[in-house]
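Q: Give me a backbone?
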Amino acid sequence: MKKYTNLLLVLFLSSICFGSCSDDDDKTNYAKDIEGTYVGTTTVNEQSIPNVEIKITRKSTNKVTLSMNQDLGVFVADIEFESDVLYAAYTYAITSTVLVNIPASDVIPDDIEMIATVVGRFTNDGDLQLVIDVQIPGNPMRVLYEGNKE
């Protein structure tokens, strides 16, 4: 009888151990949390440009694409990049170094490609803040964006 009691105890403990382990752990989908269209204001050289639209598209569980076509007064900048989404302290973050395409205009005679560093911060309330540092030779420019998810 003692042999059966020990066997039942071993089976019971084994079922608890194996039952608590699982391969389908819940993974948070940060990209889905921040995906959407944001509308806000861009500030360049102390000049505010309202109603600027930024689109965040989910590419995978924790990867997004940000796209923005922005008239910066002097030129139009097309910015599109893919970034991992990080999450800490109730804030989502993206960061990337990208190539900014600036088409020729009345002010700029030829198409230009420049490097820009983009850092974004998203809150649980749907707020987005971006800092875009554009590396213009001899005249670096900082573009700030603050917007809300629609």
